[in-house]
Amino acid sequence: MSADKLYTNGRIFTVNKDCEWVEAVVTRGNKIVYAGDQAGADAFCDANTQVCDLKGKMMLPGFIDGHCHPVMAAHVLSGVVFDIDWTLDECLAEIKRYVEEHPDNKTYFGLGYAEWIFDEKGPRKELLDAICMDKPMFFLGSGAHEAWGNSKCFEAAGITKDTPDPVPGLHYFSRDAEGNPAGHIVEGQPQAMIMSKIDFFDEESVINLMAKNSEDYAAMGVTGTADMGMYTYLEKQYFEALDAIKGSGRYLQRFVGCTCHVDDTQMVDFRISELLKAQKIYNDDKFRMNFLKIINDGTMESRSAAISEPYPEDGSVVKPLMDEKLSAEVGVKAAKAGLNINMHAIGDVAAKSVIAMAKAVREAGYDDCRITCSHSQYIAPDDIPLFGKYNIIANSTGVWMYGNPLMDKVLGHINNETFRMRSIIDSGARMALGSDFPVDEYGRQPLKSIEMCVTRKMYGQPEAPVLEPSGEAATVKEAIEGFTINNAYQMHMEDVIGSIEAGKYADFVILEENILEIPPENIHKVKVCETIMDGVTTYKA
Fold first, then answer.
1. 3-class DSSP state for residue 481?
2. In whole angstroms, what is the distance from residue 196 CA to residue 234 CA?
3. Kindly report the CA angle at 74 between 72 and 79, in degrees rounded to 5?
4. What pTM was estimated for this model as a whole?
5. Average pLDDT over the chain, rounded to whole?
6. Domain Amidohydrolase spans what residues (predicted)?
7. Which are the contacts of 125, defined by CB distance < 8 A and separation ≥ 6?
8. What class is the 64-70+202-490 domain?
9. Which of 81, 487, 44 shows the shortest CA–CA distance to 291?
10. Kind and range of the H or E element at 322?
């Protein structure tokens, strides 16, 4: 049989360490049948083969977003969307504008305010009450680990001064002097107590937005997404949206998911059981489920990350959801069930739980279980070598790797000791990159993330501060691997995607320039010319 397409006359970087650069790639249907020199490629071709002249452009395996929330994003972005750089006054002005333009809404929802625009007490309900007193308002911060509600929101959800905090110090309602909810909601369990009682979403809008977000991903060169879950109280909506988008054919990436988060230690067995059920339904190379996602702490911005030092502002100390002993037990249980594990760990104490889990899983003989430390923001220096020892995948987000003096007051010296990717890679561990979309902060484009992972400064701002330690930068090649083969490994799909090799799916991105040969500061400017997923063009400039 003749080949369908021949890609030639470009800079083709395969991410296959045995043969990194090739002259030509040949595809038949949705598979690669050859990657090598031109003479070898010609043997597969005849007059019916379409010749795709790359004209000197760079061709790579399709980018994979190794940590995102596409289903959740379609829900939470369907209302007010804040800019991470807005001041408090600008956020309030946008809320007021939205309310005035949507007078018939029964509720108001939004995402994305910068948590650091408030002091350690967090947002207050009175600011929202001044805009709208008679309808529930609920806005998630940029990291989605805290929220801001008005008085009607707490009233409608039945949250009073007598309502206990689910996990004091980690999952809680901030209080005023009388003990009433003050407006600041920290972490998932108290958020669930509100969102399970109040309906903030329109199904049709959610599906359309999910399809639009998928189109945007294709324009960024993305051919795969590792979905890191949904709030447990929206599980029904999660599957309704996923089934609808799958049936419509409007999702343009491969989807590997985890259903809903584990944010309650009592729910581990139930979540494993539900995930195993979902695996029977979503079980092909376009839609599958295989991650158990555990939220083990919060974020630095929300002062809810589990770090080993008290927060400088108020001396508060946060403990992780699962200590090392429990993490080890849960990890072995999940590995025995045949699942991969992804644990959100921002602080060094939370990261110790990931290490304890990996140690227990490896010692139990489950060497093929993929264990990922989500975000890998602050890891104790002595613990970094253990990532390589226990084969822990270090997931991170390049667009978070920039100098941010505004966080000095929150973290003190720790603010300049984060995202130590060079040391993690040198330990022998894999770095897997993603966006955490919709809480992606400065964009989910892989090219931005690659640049900032390499420069450790804000893209497009040559004079911007560098994130220290500056020597912790990754190379461009390592960042490309982080968006391709390492994410494929995390998804347990490295045998079929993540590199350009015969037998793998025809998932490619074609770039205007070779990003390995230009100054790293210019990578974010490079144009995506075409994206191919499963042998079909999903985007063309």
1. helix
2. 8
3. 110
4. 0.89
5. 95
6. 50-539
7. 148, 149, 150, 151, 153, 154, 181, 182, 183
8. alpha beta
9. 487
10. none
Surface-to-core class of residue 75, CB atoms within 10 Å of its CB (0-12 exposed, 13-18 middle, 19+ buried): buried
Examine the pLDDT at 532 and tell me if it is beyond 90: yes
- Copy the structure tokens of residue 366: 């489950």
- The dihedral built from the CA positions of residue 105, 103, 140 and 402, taken in this order, carries a sign that is positive
Q: How far apart are the first and last CA of the chain?
A: 31
Helical (H) or strand (E) element with 223: strand 222-227
pLDDT score for 439 = 85
Q: What are the residue ranges of CATH 3.20.20.140 in the chain?
A: 64-70+202-490
Q: CA-CA distance, 420 to 427, in Å (whole number)?
A: 11
Q: Tell me the H-state helices in 225-347.
A: 235-248, 268-281, 324-336
With beta carbons less than 8 A apart as the criterion, state whether 232 and 192 touch: yes
Block residue for tokens 């399709």:
62
- Cis amide leading into 438 (omega within 30): yes
Cβ(186)–Cβ(122) below 8 Å? yes
CATH 3.10.310.70-classified regions of the chain = 79-195
Both tokens of 268, joined, read 């581990």
Could you give the residue range(s) of every CATH 2.30.40.10 domain in the chain?
A: 5-61+504-540
Written as six digits, the tokens of 57 are 């452009």
**Which sign, positive or negative, has the C-alpha torsion 418, 420, 421, 425?**
negative
Pairing of strands 108-113, 137-141: parallel
The topology under which CATH files domain 79-195 is Diaminopimelate Epimerase; Chain A, domain 1 (3.10.310)
pLDDT at 76: 83
Instruction: Determine the 3-state secondary structure of 241 from DSSP.
Output: helix
Q: For residues 507 and 452, what is the distance between their CA atoms, to the nearest angstrom?
A: 24
CATH number of the 5-61+504-540 domain: 2.30.40.10
C-alpha atoms less than 13 angstroms from C-alpha of 435 in its C-beta half-sphere: 26
Q: Which residues contact 539 (CB under 8 A, 6 or more apart)?
A: 215, 218, 219, 221, 252, 528, 530, 531
CA dist., res. 221 & res. 53, Å (int): 18
| Alpha helical stretches, state H, 282-346 | 324-336
Q: What contacts 285, CB < 8 A, 6 or more positions away?
A: 254, 493, 496, 497, 505
Taking only the tens place, the pLDDT of each residue in 243-284 is 999 999 999 999 999 999 998 999 999 999 999 999 999 999
Q: Among 122, 178, 115, which Cα is nearest to 316's?
A: 122
Does the pLDDT of residue 302 top 90, yes or no?
A: no
Amino acid letter, residue 312: P
d(CA 42, CA 20): 20
CB atoms within 10 A of CB 31: 16
Supply 488's token pair: 């494929």
How far is the CA of 310 from the CAs of 304, 318, 345, 410, 412, in angstroms?
11, 8, 17, 10, 10
